Every structure is written in C-alpha cells, then in structure tokens.
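WARN no homologs supplied; continuing
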Amino acid sequence: MAVSTATPEAPTTGRLGPARAGRARWAGWLFLAPALIALVVLFVVPLFSLVVDSFTEPETGLGNYASLFTDGYTIRVLGRTLFIALVVSVIGALLAYPYAYAMTLVGPTTRALLVTIVLIPFWTSMLARNFAWLVLLQDGGVVQRILTPFGLGDVRLLGTPLAVGISMTQVLLPFLVLPMYSAMSQIDGRLVAAGQSLGAPRSRAFRRVYLPLSAPGVIAGMSLVFVLALGFYVTPALLGSTRSAMIAQVINVRAKELLDFGGAGAMGMFLLVVTLIVLALSRRLAGQNVAVAAAGGQPSRAGSTSDNAAPVRPWLRIHTTIVAIILVAPTLVVIPMSFSASETFRFPPDGWTLRWYENLFTSPEWTAAILNTLQVGIYTAVIATVLGTMAAFGLARLRPRWRGPVNGFLLSPMIVPHILVALVVFSAFLQLGLNGTLIGIILAHTAMALPFVVIAVTARLQGMDGRLPGVAASLGASPISAFRRVTLPLVLPGILSGAVLAFVTSLDEVVIALFLQAPGAITLPVQMFNSITVQIDPTISAASSLMVVLVSVPILLAQVVGARRGKKGTR
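OK structure emitted
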C-alpha cells in the first residue's frame, strides 16, 4: 500500500490542471502588464513617432533616407562608423580569444583572478575609462612617451580614429572575452588530444576541432561588440574630433542643435536596420547559443575544463598578461590622478593633494550632480526592480510560444543602439515637457534598466524547483505564505542582483542624460563630461574615482551576499 499511495503523488512535475493552467497564464499576463505598458509608452510609441518623423520631416517622402547616401558627408560618416566598429570587433577578438582560451587551461585560483580582471571594466565607469584614455593618449602622455624610443614620439594620437579605436577596444573587450569563455568552457579539452592521437599536428587539431566548436562564442562576441560600437557617442566625442566624427556625433548635432528629427531619425533607423541584420546573421551562423554566449552566462562546466591546470605556453602567458594590463590600465590611472596636485591632466602626478576631493564635495555644481545621480539611481532601481520582477514571474507563467517573443520585447532596449534610444527619448520628452527634468531621466533610465532586472530574476527562477510552492501548499500554506516563506527567499538573490544592475546602469549612463540635461537636471556623468569638453576641471579625476567606488561596491556586495546565500543553500 505504501507504494500505491506514493504513486499518485510522484508526478509532481509542475503540470497544472486546465483550469489552474488558464488562471496561471492570465496571472502571467497580469504580472507582465506594468512592464509591457511602461516599455510601450517610454520606448515603442516614441520610436514609432521618430520613424514617422524620418518620413515626414521636413517634408513627406524618402528624402532623409536618400540624403544618407547622396550628400557625400553622411555616407563618409556611415562608412567610417561601420569601419571602426568592424576593426574594433576584429582586433578585440584577436586579443580576447587567447585570453579566454588561457582561462580554460589554468587552475581555479588563476582562473578566478583572470575572471576578476575581465570584470574590472564592468565595475569601472565608462566615462572614467574614457577619461583615463584621454590622459594616456594626450600629447606628451604615457603612450607617446613609450613610443618615443621607436621614433614615433611625434605621432599624434588624441583626436584621431586610432585613439577612438583603442579606447573602444578596451571598453568592449569584456564583451568578447566572456562569450568566448562561455563557449570554450563547454568544450571537452580531450578532443584536441584525440585529434593528435590520430596523427594530426596540435595546430591542425586545434584548427579543425577546437576552433569550430568555439565559433559560437566568437560570433556572439564579435556581433555584440560590432552592434555596441555602432552607437558609441562618448568615446568619439571625447577622444575623436569633428573631422573624424562617427554617426552618433552627427545624430547628436542634428537632433539637439538643428532639431532635425527627420534626418536624425533616418540615421537612427539605418543603425537599427544594421543592428538587426548583424544579430540575425550571427544567430543564423552560431545557432541558438548566441543569445546565451552574448549574455556572458555562466557555462556548464560538466566534463569541459578540469580544475587541474594544463600547460600554458610562454607566448600565451605573455599575451594574457598584456591583455590583463590593458583591461586594468584605466583604473590604475584614474585613482592616482585624483590625488594629483597639477591643474592639468598629467600622469603620473608631479605632486599629491586632496584638493580635488574637497572641491568635489564642496562645489555646488558637483554636489548637486552627485545628489541628482543618487536620486535618479535609487528611483530607477526601485521602479525597474518592481516592474522587472513582476515581468519575470509573468514570463514563467506564459506558454512557451509566447514566452520567447515577450521576452525579446522586454529585452529590446538592450538591442537598440544607445544613441537611438537617447534620440527617441529626447524627441518624445521634448513634446511632453519632460526634457530637462529628473523625472524624465528616471523614466528613461527605467526603460534601459528594466531588461537587466528581467534577466537576473528570470535566471534565478529557472534555477528554482517549481514544485516547491506546491509542496508548501500541500502542507497547508496559503499562496501568500508559500510565496513569502519559499519562493521569495529563493528568488531574492536574483532580485537583489537585478536591483544592483539597475542602479549601476543608471549611475553610469551618460548619453541619455546628456540629451535630457538642463541646469537643474545634471547628473554626475554629465558634469564629468562637461568638465572635459566645456572646461578643463581636474575635479573629474576625483569624480571618476568616486564613480569607480559607487559602481564597484554595490556589485561586490551583491556578489558577497549571493555567495553567502549560496553556501547556506548547500548546507
């Protein structure tokens, strides 16, 4: 009898009866509704309005699109942008591939160190990294002094496409390393040895076996970097020049200075079409693994790379060391610069002082920017976390055929080039009177941060046994009690991670804030940007160090909390 009574209870596979399944699906749409409405209002409707403007402003027709390829200047800018994005993708891949491969060969301690080095750029403000490269590449800077013994000391770097390419490559390098490592860590290292045992030289076995298996990660990383590079604005604005402008700079001028939303919209649509084509091709070439690899997800290490270190050739050690230095260089520059006594951007410092920190926390402009940034970041994190968490729970209750499209829609702000998102928001908020307000910046940042919360919470839900709430209910717990005592504690690390990512996304965002800025609505990244482009204010070095701390500390705390919860869960 014991066996017969256990049999009906065994199929706890999470399947529901027709009535309960129908209620769960309706509950899913109900949970999704706030996030979907927010994205439609803040993103889809303004994007559609901009598309209409591109065909109707200043007159109805295809004139704006025709001018992209006929006015001479625009086609050169488009070509330059595509070329720089392609070069950054290729050079970045050549730097990232050996580094990611080395990560699969070394022991767990060294691997953790290499992963941490890759993550350092994520913990460092993008604006701070660009400021560091501005200091390194300026006339008389460190890079120029290094090149002097080779007879290249007179080569001008700052204000050229080369400087833009160098900075963009360093900024985007982690987006190449992580997908590649994600793909490589799933490859059984014994396959190359098997190829060698069949008579193939190691180089041929690697080329014929390992390289094709790692191709999905390479394609995912390169396509992601290419797409991100298309919409870069801050790097070419700080390190480039008007003579070598990229498309994001031209969009900014047409929208903010000329109010030519038709022409700017046509350029934005061109970027969007190129983005969708690249993503579609990469998905077709690399298969379904592209989405996972591009997200830099944690790979399944079963049967892949051993915890025992494999031999690492000397050239690979040298290459890995050089890439590691490139990854951490901006952080090593920004912090010492904040204590420099010089009133110019000079590295290494000639003297030491706390003057710039004093100015940072006493100047009305800088203190107002800090308070605005914290206010915007906190509100963005709260709103995005609530909407994203509800959306993640809603996705889990949908039919599989709806889950994919809805999830893609929720993640769409991540796919659209950043400059286009800024243009869309600026155009819409200008009509609604939200331009130049902190509320407008909060709403725009919420749309940008929402996908990160959805990804974090969804990943946590997928790793949770869906039968546990049912078990709690079978023991007499009410739905609210089961959620509070079972589901919420299990999902909480994902919610906290999403909240941290939302806060950091808002904290470091500069392009949208630049479009929406006004005297009373200037965030810290905007103030930092203006301190370089409008006036030479060394206080930016202290602000950059502060941004490093504000971005890295929440992420580190989230990792510590997640690690502790993980240890408790394994006990």
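The chain has two domains: 25-60+355-570, 80-179+212-299.
OK
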